[in-house]
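Quick one, tokens below. Sequence please?
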């Protein structure tokens, strides 16, 4: 299931050149984006990048200053929020404190004039879905944070929207509960066959849950791709730096041909990186490599002149599953390398201040053109 990879599939939600200005401030800047039916889609970005504004425009709480939002084949301009086949779950959950769980879930259905029996049935179904049957007659203040979150989820799904919008849905939960709930949300989304659009500033959350992620900055989408693509093949310095840990080397292109680009990187390291781009010789370029892609050895690699540098072990952090090394290269640059402890040889006892080598394969990192 990957409709975005098929050029013939029709998007379910389309933002077409959407701009939103508040006064002279541009919160969303000429943004175009497609989301597909049954996709779990994440809008990821730092605070203020415009992701909530985008979600609110889809819900109909804000109107675009320019551009078009098409949902399931219909241009949404002029359609009020309650007439859109979407529902929004807020971080604050916005539960009614004086109403029981049951009444909270039933609220929207009643407003829609649904028959009483049918409401009862639907509410029960929703309670079962979020495993809260036993809590039906409690008030929100008699529930834990995780339970409240589930009530909010049940309430937002009770009307069976085609699209559920979630604004930082797990922000109020502690780490362990957040992780559990991520998997519950994924299960639910798959079982119900709905389209979920989640706003988060938490990259791990986006990586865990989403089929695809749009990384946003200053009202623009910088990259849209699967979590693996975003991590393995960031399209820019911003994305490489924003997602996960990374080492970035700056330099100048010294050669570019036949799928390989050579860079004279800062600190005098010669980098050869696999790339389909052919930037011009002499242009500025960067090279990004994840800590786990750096090989750390105590002896020089076979070809120490290319994709290798030596330095001093500056810091060693044992993290259980892996060990993270900070290595101060001869150039003074400090790089981060990580090794899975399960893969470490016992006879490899790294110690502080030791001289070590880093080395890497041509396809272990990516060329940064910006
Ligand atoms: P956060 O994670 O902090 O909510 P965000 O990426 O969701 O951030 P938005 O809430 O979309 O960001 O806001 C984007 C920018 O637009 C912010 O700088 C915000 O101050 C501004 N903004 C949002 N709503 C309004 C408004 N009603 N009036 C004026 N400025 C607004």
């Amino acid at each position: 299931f990957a409709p975005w990879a098929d050029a013939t599939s029709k998007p379910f939600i389309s933002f077409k050149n959407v701009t939103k200005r508040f006064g002279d401030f541009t919160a969303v800047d000429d943004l175009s984006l497609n989301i597909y039916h049954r996709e779990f889609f994440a809008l990821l970005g730092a605070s203020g990048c415009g992701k909530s504004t985008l979600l609110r425009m889809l819900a109909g709480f804000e109107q675009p200053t320019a551009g078009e939002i098409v949902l399931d084949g219909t241009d949404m301009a002029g359609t009020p929020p309650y007439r859109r086949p979407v529902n929004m779950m807020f971080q604050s959950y916005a539960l009614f404190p004086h109403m029981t769980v049951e009444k909270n879930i039933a609220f929207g259905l009643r407003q829609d004039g649904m028959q009483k029996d049918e409401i009862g049935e639907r509410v029960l179904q929703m309670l079962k879905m979020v495993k809260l049957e036993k809590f039906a007659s409690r008030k929100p203040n008699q529930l834990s944070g995780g339970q409240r979150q589930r009530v909010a989820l049940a309430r937002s799904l009770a009307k069976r929207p085609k699209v559920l919008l979630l604004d930082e849905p797990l922000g109020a939960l502690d780490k362990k509960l957040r992780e559990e709930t991520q998997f519950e949300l994924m299960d639910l989304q798959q079982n119900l066959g709905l389209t979920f659009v989640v706003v988060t500033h938490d990259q791990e959350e986006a990586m865990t849950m989403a089929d695809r992620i749009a990384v946003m900055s200053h009202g623009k989408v910088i990259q849209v791709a699967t979590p693996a693509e975003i991590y393995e093949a960031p399209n820019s310095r911003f994305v490489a730096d924003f997602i996960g840990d990374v080492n970035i080397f700056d330099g100048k292109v010294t050669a570019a041909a036949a799928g390989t680009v050579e860079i004279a990187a800062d600190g005098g390291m010669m980098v050869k990186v696999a790339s389909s781009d052919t930037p011009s010789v002499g242009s500025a370029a960067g090279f990004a490599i994840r800590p786990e892609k750096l090989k750390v050895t105590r002896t020089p690699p076979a070809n120490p002149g290319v994709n290798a540098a030596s330095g001093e072990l500056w810091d060693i952090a044992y993290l259980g599953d892996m060990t993270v090394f900070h290595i101060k290269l001869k150039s003074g640059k400090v790089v981060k390398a990580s090794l899975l402890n399960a893969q470490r040889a016992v006879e490899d006892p790294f110690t502080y201040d030791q001289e070590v080598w880093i080395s890497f394969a041509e396809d272990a990192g990516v060329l940064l053109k910006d």
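The radius of gyration is 25 Å. Helices lie at 51-59, 101-111, 116-129, 145-158, 175-192, 203-209, 227-232, 237-242.
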